[in-house]
Amino acid sequence: MKKWGSIFSVAALFASLLTGCATSAPKAVDTSSGAAAGNAPANATLAPEKQLVVAGNGATVEQMMKDDIFKKFNAKYPDVKLTYVSGVSTEIVAKVKAQKASPQIDVTVIEGGEQEGGRVEGLWEPLSDKDIPNIKKVGADLKVKDNSGVTVNFTPMGISYNAEMVKAKGLPIPQSWNDLAKPEMKGNLSIAEISSNFGRSALIMLAYANGGSEKNMDPGFEKLKTIAGYMPTFAKTSAQLQQDMQNKTAAYTTWTMARSLVQKDAGLNLEFVIPKEGANLVPNVATIVKGAKSPNAAKLFIDFLLTDEIQTLYGSKLYYNPAVNVKLPDDLSKKLSFDRSKVVNFDLEVVGQKTPEWLDRFNKEVAPKVGK
């Protein structure tokens, strides 16, 4: 596997790519925890409610949230009962929208495309560094539109493959998104439905690899129809993708570098590739649901996610690049590095607006091609 360059800031997702290289997370404002030296934090007067409901992705993300982050937060705020609702980001946004009259979720931590879709729907409360002082530690290049959320980490998309299986079967090492449509992929591939960010990102990149973009998805859908014939089904969740790779029922999948590194630690002989056409980044964005029942606890929780301790934990346990300028161990920093010149800038507003249309088209045009 190539040695990727320095860690990329996700400015590309919201503005434009910066040039040059860096050895840590994007440069941020130098603050402690949002308070002037010697004074109490700006949110010190917030009294948390007795419960907090957090929604986010499943699998390893859910495990770390429950086993590590929740326990650490409860050590600081022992009277807050924490509940986790897992699901893909599209499902979470749909739940929040359905519950708009009486929100059952306080905080979401979801991918940027879905967060943007929710912003357009008016689902999120605006965030302020008055109540969430650690927002000041997040670089301006990670800013979320209208302060409707805050980026807590990010990771690049790409293709992951089982090097042992690929060698044993004489399969190709992927270099292009179009390699997923090679006949050799039949019976060796697992890709998520486009309701998942993993599947949707692959679809958009297939469009880019064939002269299209998020504004012209026809080339991507045509390629995905071919790919659908190589698989018995599209994975419905990231947990299913993970299982397919662990069970070695698939040699290839499309997901993030973070997921690939976690599974490599678990014993799978995985390699991760950013194809020659490039790939997008996946920012995970924390939001407070508009009308949340526990707004104070929500603000304190999001502030906690941006502490150096939790940011380092995201990097060390899940291999997400931190959103704050935290110093990581050299070996971890090297592991999280990649070539940011290959990043493709998705227009998240278009992605958020078009996803329902793409889902409908997927169900009508692509799903019937599965296994044929």
From TrEMBL:
Pfam (any one): SBP_bac_8
InterPro entries named in the record: SBP
GO cellular component, one term: outer membrane-bounded periplasmic space
GO biological process, alphabetically ordered: thiamine transport
Molecular function per GO: thiamine binding; thiamine pyrophosphate binding
Superkingdom of origin: Bacteria
Keyword entries, A-Z: Signal
Protein name: ABC transporter substrate-binding protein
Organism ancestry: Bacteria, Bacillati, Bacillota, Bacilli, Bacillales
